[in-house]
Amino acid sequence: MATGAVAAYPDPPAGFPLHLQSGAMRRRFWGVFNCLCAGAFGALAAASAKLAFSSEVHVGFCALGIALMAATNSLMWTFFSRGLSFSMSSAVASVTVTFSNILSSAFLGFLLYGECQEVLWWGGVFLILCGLLLIHRSLLPTQEALAHKQQ
After folding, report:
1. Local structure of 140: helix, strand or coil
2. Under the phi-then-psi rule, with left for phi > 0, alpha for psi from -120 to 50, and beta for the rest, what region is 114?
3. What's the pTM?
4. Which residues contact 107 (CB under 8 A, 6 or more apart)?
5. How big is the chain by its Cα radius of gyration, in Å?
6. Beta-carbon contacts of residue 35 (< 8 Å; ≥ 6 apart)
7. Concatenated DSSP letters of 109-131
8. Could you write out the DSSP letters of every residue in 26-80?
9. DSSP assignment, residue 13?
10. CA torsion sign, 122 to 124 to 130 to 134?
11. Torsions phi, psi of 120, nearest 5?
């Protein structure tokens, strides 16, 4: 096991980048990755619900949309709970998921429905991103936090 790594997490695979092999950086990377995935799956769940419950949809598409919504919601909660376990703070995980969900929703809205967002909306996304960067920079992992997280 790499020096300084938390014992609760297995050794990294052989091809894992060196700068992510230390315990704290590896935890932060996987926390952010899981939260980004959770936000994307949340946006997919919302798009599936919109497909399932729109008024002009065949019954087969309605059933498919409900099944897809249930599956993507399950994946969203799975990735979110994993992101929470890897994150140093629940606030960091929540804001990261929110940011990912907003961007994924905008992308899916444009792709599926041709929706375009206004400049004010993108300004709000930019402010959320700035807050997210501040949170991530101010909560540098310490050995005390890692020891508390391990218990």
Report:
1. coil
2. left
3. 0.71
4. 43
5. 18
6. 79, 80, 83, 87, 93, 96, 97, 100
7. HHHHH-----HHHHHHHHHHHHH
8. HHHHHHHHHHHHHHHHHHHHHHHHHHHT-TT--HHHHHHHHHHHHHHHHHHHHHH
9. P
10. negative
11. -60, -40
- Name the token pair of 88: 């140093």
- Quote the CA–CA distance of 42 and 30 in Å, as a whole number: 18
Contacts of 31 (CB under 8 A, 6+ apart): 83, 85, 86, 87, 88, 92, 93, 96
**Nearest of 19, 68, 16 to residue 42 by alpha carbon:** 68
Do 3 and 26 meet the contact criterion of CB atoms below 8 Å apart? no
Residue 22: DSSP 8-state: S
Alpha-carbon distance of 108 to 43, in angstroms, equals 8
Residue-level pLDDT, tens digit, the chain, 151 residues:
455 544 455 555 555 555 545 676 777 888 889 999 999 999 999 998 888 888 787 888 888 889 999 999 999 999 999 999 888 788 888 888 998 999 999 999 899 888 888 999 999 989 988 988 888 776 655 555 555 555 5
